[in-house]
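Researcher: I need the complex structure. Ligand is aspartic acid. Inputs:
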Amino acid sequence: MLKVTKFGGSSMADAGQYEKVRDIVTADPERRVVVVSAAGKRFSKDHKITDLLYLCHAHIQYGVPCDPIYETITSRYIEIREKLGIQMDLESEFAELKSRLDAKQVSKDEMASRGEYFSAKLMAAFLGFDFVDASQWVYFTIDGKVDTEKTYAALKEKAKNCKGIVIPGFYGVMPDGSIRTFSRGGSDITGSLAAAALDADVYENWTDVSGILMADPRIVENSRPIAEITYEELRELAYAGANVLHEDAIYPVREKNIPLNIRNTNAPEDPGTMICKDFDTEIDTNRIITGIAGKKNFSIITVFKRGLTKEVGILRRILLVMEKHNISVEFVPNGMDNVSLAIPTDKLSPHLYAILADIQQDIAPDNITVHDQIAVITAVGHQMVFRPGVSGKIFAALGEAGINIRMITQGPDELNIIFGVDNKDFDNAIRVLYNSFIK
Ligand code: ASP
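Model: Output:
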């Protein structure tokens, strides 16, 4: 059995957190592969090391010295080393990096990657595991995609005969040997790639919450964690606005059907959330909705034309207008004589009047309306499939709370029910939904 573990920034924030990580790793001999993030925040006003690294790089680009910021970064790592009594010369690496940085020889990606690099070096020494640099196995192709075949083969080779390895997350290497990072939060992807490469039995993603919560805790106090969720549901929730894993972290493990377990470094006894392809547990009528998420600030353009649904090609023509303005439409609910397009307002507003003029000309509608300040909420749950009355219950609950529904749509796979409300009703709608479905 092999467990690939990934520890996020808050789990790597200081010496005390390193000790928690060590206790978690040594508690289970199957935890032989450890992927780490850069040091994150120790308290809410603290800085993430990655942010400071980007800041240093930006200073140098503008010809402004970054010494105090650089010093803040290096002292965080030196403090961890000292407190844990690790023997390691970090000073010469810090000095070498700084002189190349001052000479503008360090790319933005290389600079950002150093947070994970130093975290992994220290953690490897602390655990007595081997350090395996991500630049030696995470291979990008020239167009910035991961070459999974080459990547998996390289890690398999590197991990052979090791007692345990520690890998820095977030970056890899381009064909020309330069460092490239994933987008922010990308250490989740590195962990998933490592799990897939080594055919792990589970990918444990350790963070600072006891799993994915059913609703945003800033809106629903004491929101419960989700015990089990499918990869598909998770994608829907993330798309709907839930801030969970990096989106691209799901693909490598899903492809190999490796379960992903979100755990809490500060409460290691909690089971967290298990993410799998499917579960054969019994249908639980108290768990029809797996999670609720949403986003504010959509605009809805509604095009009215008598007999619209009967007119061949009309939807295509409307969508063609959006394509011409490079706008991606998130939801398209329709009625017999109308169709609505839900688009994030910040994307739509620069093009709105040109789009309305084009629709007027190409479609000759009876009327067009535009509503702003709309929030789109998604209730996700694979148990909703073919279960009558779920949407009825949702709309009854919202109606009783006096919340006006501005748009309704449901995916054909019945994995979700999506509805629009006014921005001002957003929090309340999520609370009402949570309280009527989650017991
Ligand atoms: N340290 C990087 C970030 O802050 C990557 C990660 O932690 O996953 O985005």
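Model: Summary of the prediction. The mean pLDDT is 94.
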